[in-house]
Amino acid sequence: MTIAAKFEIEYLQYLDAAGKEVRKDLPAFAKDLDHMVELYKVMMSTRVFDAKSIALQRTGKLGTYASCLGHEAAHVGIGSAMKPEDVLAISYREYGAQLYRGVRPREVYMYWGGDERGNDYQVEPARHDFAWSVPIATQCLHAAGSALAFKIRGEKRVAVCTIGDGGSSKGDFYGAINIAGAQNLPLVAVIVNNQWAISVPRKIQSGAETLAQKGIAAGLYCLQVDGNDIIAVRKAMEDALDRARNGEGGSVLELVTYRLGDHTTADDARRYRGKEEVDEAWAKEPMKRLRNWLVKKKAWDDAKEEAWRAECDDWMDNEVNAYLETRAQPVSAMFDYIYAEVPADLAKQRDYVLSLENQLESNKGH
Amino acid sequence: MAQITLIEAVTQALAYEMAHDESVVVLGEDVGVNGGVFRATQGLQEKFGELRVIDTPLDEATIAGVTVGLAVQGMKPVAEAQFEGFIYPMMEQIACHAARMRNRTRGRLTVPAVWRAPWGGGIRAPEHHSEANEHLFTNIPGLRVVLPSSPARAYGLLLAAIRDPDPVVFFEPKRIYRQYKEEVPDDGEALPLDVCFVLRDGSDVTLVTWGSQVKETLEAAEALAKEGISAEVIDVATLTPLDFDTIAESVAKTGRCVIVHEAPKTAGFGAEIAARLAEECLYDLLAPVERVTGFDTHIPLYRLEMRYLPSVERVVSAAKRTLAAS
Question: Is residue B176 part of a domain?
Fold first, then answer.
């Protein structure tokens, strides 16, 4: 027999769990320590934000919330590598990427706090990104469609979608990378492999040795990355974005990380995974290694850490207050965005609901 | 002026809009060189190129989801589901994203897209090529569900659907794709969505229908006229949002109503119209509302399919029953 095709999947890592450099060819951005400090600060504000969200949920001030604990390097790495004109299509826990692109914590709180206005991101470039997409992997096709629009219009923009290890089992993921390969679309599909799809572990999702290699079937560039090493994530993303932007094709990146928290606040991960595994994952978490590295380079210290944490706390308090002070939308809002204009038949239902409201109001008056 | 069929009117509308709005693109399986399995996109790729008439991989979910992405980026995609029986993998994208994007984002992102699908039975096709499943979409808020029933309405309604700022599922009654020709000026004039068309005035009974059943229903009205019974025929055309007022006005005049559709009876869209008549027009009614529909079975393979589809005789009998009741 002869070989019809041959493939291999490379693994990219710059910093090990202790923050020690495992290779010497650091990318250009990593030599700019001010920039690396900026990335660390966004990772930290993401973690502070996440803790605040969970506290809000536990005290009854927020609905079900999906934590991002442990994903900070993966998410901030994605967001920071993208250009403003690119488009991000996420699932629902990639806050690090979203905060980097201008989504405000109050918007996240509003969405999980039962208010659609949370999805009406006010700040660019997030304003042209997709909203949270709960049905797993469906957003991959929105990114592929966006990439197709960029190709049709000759725009040098890239669409990025993120999914989990579980999401990579879905047809929509395959469909998206498949059309990206067939049509040479500027798509970067990022699998944030955090090892768990609620209670189902990575090994049940696929018999493939890596999830990155799924992109081989689509004819895309594939790479597995230490998803807890922001230098590796950022570098892999920059390369994939450049390739896509230059018309050289799409990519599938697998960022190997770990979901340190529960799936959502409605989940209890102790039901299906042991403490030992979680402890091991904590030893590899993304913040500590970057901090060690920055401290060693004398770019960061305890005083800076404390000062920045205080700033994050103030910011989050401010955002939480803004969220809690937001009044619910008027009841008519449930009708106002179904179509560009409320059709006559639907207006009858809206008028009925408004009459019920008026009745309630006038009853209060008596 | 050339006389054209319903399918040619679809092509004419697509070509007109693509020529006048460069954000309009067509995508689907076999829509390119082959011009679609029914030839709805015949000649379009030649005219507008491979970037605007796109043969996709054979995956309906991909077509539907890519369509959402294109539309959010400001394109006006017209996606083709090759047959309505293959639209099911598209439903998640249509229901969970296309129909919700505006609402989800408070108007920040919108999906001005059209999903076209040849629809309905009666062409001796294999299994899964003959469904009438419009009622599965009429219960999805945020969508428009449109069914033309003539070449002129296919042209005018498809133009309107493409120009509409919200997602439209556009079911084309394939049984009457080539039933007859009529003059359809290629003037870019759209017809209004969200309104019923009164195709024939009458005073004794209102016949309400859509899609290919318009053919049998008009023939039934003709047959009834020969017996001195005056039937009004309404083509609903846009099922949702429903123009119920036109139906109610007609029933206020006639006092009788027969609803004709080829989808199964239970929870078909006729049930909605009958319920609305019961809620809002009960005291205008002189007889119980009749429904002439497909049965609560799968449409049989083609040796029996015409026994499943509503016939002129069934419509005439139902109309007569409403007259006998009062």
Answer: yes
User: Residue A338's closest chain B neighbor by CA?
Assistant: B142
Domain shared by B207 and B91, yes or no: no
* A294: its two tokens: 């920055």
B174 and B209 in a common domain: no
Asked if A257 is an interface residue toward chain B (Cβ–Cβ < 8 A), one would say no
Q: Please tell me whether the overall predicted TM-score, pTM, comes out greater than 0.95 for this model.
A: yes
H-helix or E-strand containing A272?
none
Give the whole-angstrom CA distance, residue A296 versus residue A292: 6
Q: Is residue B189, in this structure, part of any structural domain at all?
A: no
Domain total for chain B? 2
For chain B positions 140-169, those within 8 Å of chain A (CB to CB) are 141-142, 144, 165-166
Which residues of chain B does A89 touch, with a Cβ-Cβ cutoff of 8 Å?
69
Whether B82 and B159 map to the same domain: the answer is yes
Name the residues of A annotated as catalytic.
259, 263, 272
Q: Is A121 on the interface with B (CB under 8 A)?
A: yes
Residues of chain A contacting B79 with CB distance shorter than 8 Å: none
Chains A & B: contacts with CB separation below 8 Å = 135
Structural domain of B303: 197-325
Residue B192 is assigned to a structural domain of this protein: no
Residues B21 and B135 in one domain: yes
List pLDDT tens digits, range B114-159.
Answer: 999 999 999 999 999 999 999 999 999 999 999 999 999 999 999 9
**What is the C-alpha end-to-end distance of chain A, expressed in Å?**
90
Clarify whether residues B8 and B112 are in a common domain: yes
A121, B65: Cβ pair inside 8 Å? no
Residue A192 DSSP label: E
Residue of A nearest to B142 (CA): A338
Together in a domain, B53 and B104: yes
Give tens-digit pLDDT for A21-31. Answer: 999 999 999 99
Q: Which residue of B has its CA nearest to A157?
A: B73
DSSP single-letter state for residue A359: H
Instruction: Report CB contact under 8 Å: A142, B72.
Output: yes
- Please tell me whether residues B50 and B166 are part of one structural domain: yes
Out of B183, B210, B229, pick the residue that ends a domain: B183
Distance from CA of A202 to the nearest CA of B (A): 25
H or E element: which one contains A277? helix A275-283
Q: Please indicate, yes or no, whether residues B81 and B53 belong to a single structural domain of this protein.
A: yes
Q: What is the structure's pLDDT at A363?
A: 85
Which among B34, B66, B40 has a CA at the least distance from the CA of B154? B40
Report the first-to-last Cα separation within chain B, whole angstroms: 48
CATH of the domain at B83: 3.40.50.970
Whether the pLDDT of residue A210 is over 70: the answer is yes
Question: A116: closest CA among A104, A132, A103, A101?
Answer: A132
